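Recap slide: histidine kinase, sequence and predicted structure.
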Amino acid sequence: MVHRLTWYEPQRGDEYLREFFISGLIDIGATLILQDMEGRYSCITTLPARFRLTDGEPPTDTSLFGEEIGSRLADLKSRLEQPGDHAEMEIDAGDDTFFEFRCRMITMANGRNNLMTIVIDRTEDRRRERLLRALLREVSHRSKNLLAIIQSIASQTARYSGSLNSFLGKFRGRLHALAQSQDLITDSSWSGAYFRDLLQQQIEKYVQDGAADLIHVTGENLLLTPNASLHVGLALHELTVNAVSHGDFVATRQRIEVTCERIREDGRDSVRITWTEPLGQSDEEGQAGSARFGSTVLERVVPASVNGSAVHQVRPGFVYYELTFPLEAEG
């Protein structure tokens, strides 16, 4: 038998087809209801567990779905006047469940008109929609934060750059550091980035000639919030670039000691990050005056952005940086 785009073998029998259709309806989360034009039910398949059939009584829209939904469903069906007419509605059934009702007037093989109602569980669809909206809001929020950081970097870099070439070199490096941190945050579905991953990014890019082992890390590999990840990544960029450009740890084969630890401060969990870099006499002056924006980032921009505090010292024999901020700080 061929009818439009539907075909089946009549000899298979109704029982075979009934199992096929019911299995399909269960799989897609759909209910099929058939009524005559007086509203009497002749078939209900795969009714959602939320709705109940009453034993010993013929089903009605009200007994199946309750007063409110039954009333709305009756109004929807009253708009169907000719075969082929159809109408739809989506209802909130409570307890965070949602269903779509599709009603259509059809003509059966015996020539009589009937009302067909398809009920589709849209709960998961609505949850996905809410999640998507939340993610889009998060993207918007993160984008605005990132643009504000970039604006600050551009302004401060320009302030302390003596030439266009100097500005472009520093600005590109800092943007790349932000981009790397953002990649880690995105890969974690915006849960943040681990401290050692942030540091490793900078080591891989700037520390060459097999000197990566000279940066020694101890303490905890803490997961930082997205906002903290961006700014800690920027601080590590400044420290690493200054160490490579103006320090002598590679030439002297002296280790830079980096720590990250969880501490308790002011009644809350906090993060303390330290950087201790050996410094030769000939390099102290270069480190102290090499990159005033580096100092601005390390001493002002980063700690302010994570609601923390910082200590940055260039002393005879070493460079010391300490950043402390709440573990859950977010911007």
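Residues 288-292 have pLDDT under 50 and may be disordered.
The first strand starts at residue 2 and ends at 3.
(End of recap.)
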